[in-house]
Amino acid sequence: MEEKKKKEKWQGLRESGFRVLFVGFFSLVIAFMIYSRFTMPSSELLRVESHELIGLAYGMLAITAASMASMVYGAYTIFQSEQIRTTTTLGSTNSLISFITDAFSNRNYYWKIMIVAAISYGIFFGFLSQILVYRGDVSFTEKEIKVPSLDLIPCCAAPGYMPMLTFYITDHFLILIIPLNVILATIVSLLVGFNVALSIFAFRFKKSLLQTKTSLAAGIGATSGLFVGCPTCAGSLISALLGIGVVGAGGASASVLAPFQTVFIAASIPVLVVAPFLTARSIRYASSCNIT
Questions:
Q1: Looking at the domain assignment, is residue 213 inside a domain?
Q2: In which element (H, E) is residue 134 found?
C-alpha cells in the first residue's frame, strides 16, 4: 500500500512538473513570435501606433519572467518526482539518476550550495556577458541620462532580443535586459550551481570512502573536478583574463565575438546537462570499488 501511494505521488508530481515546464516554455515561444510579428519594420502597428508598443513591451517582459519561473518550478517538480521514484521498488538504486537525486536529499546543505554557486556565477557571468555593465570611464549624467532611470527600446531586432530594457543604477553602472540573453544566462547559472553542488558532493563522498586527509593534490583534484562539473567556468575565466566580452576591454576581439555571444551561451547548455551524469558515474564507480 505504501509503495502504491509513493507510485501515485511520483507519477502525479512528474506529470504536473512536465505540464508546468511545457506551459512556461510554449508560452515564452508564442509570446516571442507574437511580439516579433507586431514589431517587424513592415508591421502596420509599428508604423501607425508605435507609442502603444511600450505597454506591449512591458507585458512581454512580464511574460518572460513568469515563463522562466514556470519552467524552473516545473524542472524542480520533476526532480522531486525522481527523488521519490528512486526510493520505491520502481527505481533502480544503482542508476545514475539515483546517485544524482541522493546528492540533494539533504535539502539544507547541497541545495544551499547550489543557490549560492548559481548566484555567484550569475553575477560573474553577468559582468562578462554585459548584462551587468560598469563603465568607470563614462559618466551617464554627463550624457544627460537621469540616474536612476529606465530606458526601454521596444523594437526592432530578431525574436528574443526585443524589448531591450536598460536600468541606469548609478552614474557608472547599468543593467541591460535582453530577454534571450537573460534567459540563457539564468539557465546556465542554475545548471552551473547544480553541477558545482553535485561535484562537491562527489568529492566529499570519495574522500569519505578513501578516508584520506585533504592535501595539495586533493585540492588540485577538487578544483579540476569543479571545472569538469562547470564547463563554462573555465571558458569564462579564460575570456575574462583575455579581456574578451568585457566592456571597454578586448577592443576588436570583443566586437567580433559579440554577435556569437548567445550561440556560445546556448552551446554550453547541453554540456552542463550531460555533466551531472558523468559525475554520477564517477560516484557509482567509487561506490562499487569500495564495496568490492
A1: yes
A2: strand 132-134
Pick the closest to residue 27 from 57, 53, 58, 64 (CA basis).
Answer: 64
Domain-located, residue 156: no
| Of 154, 138, 127, residue with least CA distance to 60 | 154
pLDDT (average), residues 166-170: 88
Q: How large is the average pLDDT for residues 260-280?
A: 75
Lowest mean pLDDT among 35-39, 139-143, 258-262, 263-267: 258-262
| Grid cell locating 201 | 558532493
What pLDDT was estimated at residue 266?
A: 67
Q: What are phi and psi of 176, to 5 degrees?
A: -105, 115
Q: For 234-265, how does the pLDDT look when each residue is reduced to its tens digit (9 = 90+)? A: 444 444 444 444 333 333 333 344 445 566 66
Residue 171 identity (one-letter amino acid) = D
- Whole-structure pTM value: 0.77
Q: By the 8 A CB rule, do 191 and 68 touch?
A: no
Q: Is residue 289 part of a domain?
A: yes
**What is the rounded distance in angstroms from the CA atom of residue 151 to the CA atom of residue 89?**
56
C-alpha cell at 152: 526601454
Number of other CB atoms surrounding residue 83 within 10 Å: 19
Count: domains in the chain: 1
Q: Residue 116 is part of which domain span?
A: 106-130+178-292
Amino acid code (one letter) for 182: V
Say if residues 128 and 236 touch (Cβ distance below 8 Å). Answer: yes
Burial-class residue 203 by CB neighbours within 10 Å (0-12, 13-18, 19+).
Answer: buried
